[in-house]
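Lecture notes, structural biology module. Today: joint structure prediction for complexes of two components.
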Amino acid sequence: MVDDSDLDAARRRIASAATLEELRAVENDLLGKKSAIAAMNTRLGELAPEARKERGREINELRSALTGAVAARRAVLEEGDRSAGIAADRIDLTEAVRVPGVGRAARRRGQLHLVTQTRDELEDVFIGMGFTVAEGPEVETDWYNFEALNIPPAHPARSGFDSLYLKLGEPGTVLIRPHTSPVQVRVMEAQRPPIYSIMPGRCYRKDTPDARHTPAFHQIEGLVIDRGITFGDLAGTIEEFTNAYFGPDIHSRLRPASFPFTEPSAEYEVTCVICHGTGCRTCSGTGWIELGGCGMVHPNVFEAVGIDPEEWSGFAFGFGIDRLAQIRHSISDMRVMADNDLRFATQF
Amino acid sequence: MLVPLSWLRDFAPFDLDPVELGEVFDNLGMVVEGMTRVGEGLDGVVVGRVVEIAAIAGADKIRRVVVDAGAPEPVEVVCGAWNFDVGDVVPLATVGTTLPGADFQIGRRKMKGVTSNGMICSSRELALGDDHAGIMVLPGAMAAEVGRPFAAAMGIESDVVYDLAIETNRPDAMSIAGVARDAAAKLGLPFSIPAPKVTATDAGGTATIVIESPDLCDRFGATIIPGVAVGPSPEWIARRLTRAGMRPINNVVDASNYVMLELGQPTHPYDLDRLPGRGLLVRAARKGETLATLDGVERRLGEGPQPDCLICDAEGTPVGIGGIMGGASSEISDGTSTVLLEAAHFERMAIARTSKRLGLRSEASARFERGVDPAGIERARDRVAELLGLAQGHRAVAGEPPVPSRVPVRVARVNAMLGTDLTSDEVRAYLGPIGFSAEPVADGILDVTVPTFRPDAEREVDVIEEVARHHGYERIARSVPRSPQVGQLTAYQHDRRRVRDVLVGEGLTEAIGPMLLGPGDHARAGLPEAPGEVIEAEDPLAREESVLRTSLLPGLLRAVVTNVSHRVIDVPLFEIGHVYGPPPAGQVLPDERERLAAILYGEGGDGRAAADVVRTLLGALRIDDVAWRASRDEPGLHPTRTVRLIAPDGAVVGVVGEVAPDALSAHDLTGRAGWIDLDLGVLLSGVPRRDPAARVVSRFPSSDVDLAFVVDDTEPAAAVERTLRDAAGDLLVDVWLFDVFRGPQVGDGRRSLAYRLRFCAPDRTLTDAEVAAIRQQCIDAVEQRHPATLRA
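The predicted structure, tokenised, for the full assembly:
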């Protein structure tokens, strides 16, 4: 016979089990094959059928009470183990150990060159405006560089390009392009209008390096040729690009200028991105930064590539990518960009 | 070009605020690069006369100077200049003055026991000139003005000097009068160039003119001006020249320079008595002829492919280079009494060529090469005589005055080009004041006469630009054309961006290396550099930038050296850039290619790391079919740690491996450097990509089989893997090398390669028997085709 005090004692034993292992031992004692309950069960057969039924019910109640108590205690102990395990798992994620080496384990993310980042951003703006991106060779013939662009031999404008000629072909016929305009000529030769394209790329001028110039530099030009293109379209396209790239509070203005390949020609300036027009050192106090040149494609250029200037009109513009990056990132001396110094390159 | 406002006012009544007038110049395309106010801040300066100079005890650099400044008491100052004497008239700055050319206020100071009560000034301190060597000693006649304010006594007006950038298509604006014409037109002010008043004389005899080369010089005028007394110019001429940036020399040269600045027509004065034959002859230089120019340099002429224009005396001896610079032999000197004044018109291109080849530019050549008014000769010659205050003797002009060209201009075309809505009358109103007379000849068509001072204007569109300038660029309504196409990158451009992003993700930073290298840079990197193997520049900026790169290796090695020198010890860099090989047969342009290169320098930076990067890159591009072949002979690369990547069609995609030890040590670099060098064109356009169509992923369980082979070291693992793939058949879903082991157990010159193969069928669970059969096929294939045995 099991009385209430025995049940209480059993419950206390279950509750006092400190580990899952102890609990298993207690469980075995109380409910296992050699337990008092098992013995009682064995003896059931000795009872009269009426009493056996009664006694069987009592044993089942007892068993389920003990099983329930064990399960409850197990849940408590398991939860304790889980939390202890999690607590022991603690790590400090700010222990950022720097291991030298370029192996995969130590590798950190690299960086795109500032010029590439700038170029991609510019390309994306123009792609959004419906332009394609055209490219061409960096070493070019005199024809693509100058003659097709209305700059015949001995034209005074040639001296302004500080071209580097190469020992190829006849002397003075092959050079590193001093501007990306030869790509415009190639596009006009290869494609009938309408043309809406930009030409980013690398150029070289024999220009002594200083804080604002390096001989090798990157330019981006744009060319639009369609029916009925006007100077107003040129000014509007430049304003739209300026707003999209620099932000809605940066505006553009055009000033008369002279280039052999465009007529009318203009220099274009944008609100100083540093002082937003109030005047600062970057803009020499004027509130404006000169960005590049532009103009309506000269009829001589159209004629050189076989496009009828009476049927089509167009405009072109161009500016320096490196210079833009310099202004945007307040780089005091452009020459650092040529060093490929990781201390400089990885900060952008 | 320096343009004094007071000089502009000779031609039009400009009364605008100088800053606003500057904006007018800007908007006309004559950009104001600087604006200086001169003749201001002279209020505290008076005319003084030196009455006593005395030494100061204990001082040998400064003296005590007593100046009569018109007051009862003379003023005592201390002065460090020695170029004046008692009796000289000088500008005296009184106490409290801040001089325009100095940034301090003059105070009462005591030096060596002597109190200085002011300062006597140099021309630079007064911002009236550049001279700072001594005190500005005034003309003796100024003694009558002692005590008077200096500016008033000298007739100095305050002035504003603009520094204007004149574009090449504005030859007219290379003169004060031309700038005034343009600005007056914009402002609606009356403009006129006063006609010079000249008188004639019979004195001075005659001179001859012969033009032998009308292709170089189509008009030539010579004027005799007798009775010249060479001496200093009047103060106002000297001051204007100074303000416009020219040094006064003597009255004859100054008058010539003055007229060039004012009217844009260069002239040249000769001493007629030093011109043999009393005449001038214009001809092309003969090869090898020499001439000493005014700057004292001996010039060789006639050496170019096209002729140089020489001015000779009547006997044919050169006395000047036409339109560029005169010779020393007939220079104006103190003794000159008769001047022969040349005023001519030279062919623009001839001047540009000769000036460029001689490396000799002058104020005259700058004007002639842009285009001088061929009809401006007479006015210029008259103005020189007027400025000298002398009568003209014999004068002659050879060559006919030009007929102004006429251009039909369609008003509709003006509006179509500009996006404006101008009437015919509005167009005419813009053109008239700048000298382009426009007469309506038919409906909507103007017959425009181009003034001879605008030789740049040749076509309708040139006239349209003038309309745009005077209408105002800022007044043209802006519009945005709609592109009829979708803007997008080409597949190549898109993939190139992806390549960059993958490399950045792999920890590489992008470099942009030099296009040009120095002699020896290729060789130092182990690359060929003999004549014919590289392209050289004709006339490089520097020796270090004189050879086009044939590889990205030298530039990236240079970048590694730079970084290591700054103790950046891990240098993983990549570059996408063009390289330039010698032109293919029959072509003039180089074999120019866009390449992708990467260098991995630092701990763990070796061929294996480079190969890992390439595998990741190929995976990102869905490229499976590239063969890796060991290659011993790649220039600059490690002979036993380099492979060549070959496309299925045999095209070389590039190389992966390590930089050759010799190339590293030539750059003082130790250790290893992983290297990747791929032809981007072949990689992105010449290699097949895996079909992007989705493959069904099986819902049934997969089975793995591990196979380890002992393989000769010389046998590439990639070849073994290729065989496994081929033998495993369609049920193979993946295979990877998971262990490489070398040691005595596998023997010398061999290694164990352990592969895991994963099999799965799309429609069922594979049976053990099926897997076992495939396993055996794989083993047999590898053992048959390679020097390999299954590792027990």
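Point to remember: The radius of gyration of chain B is 41 Å.
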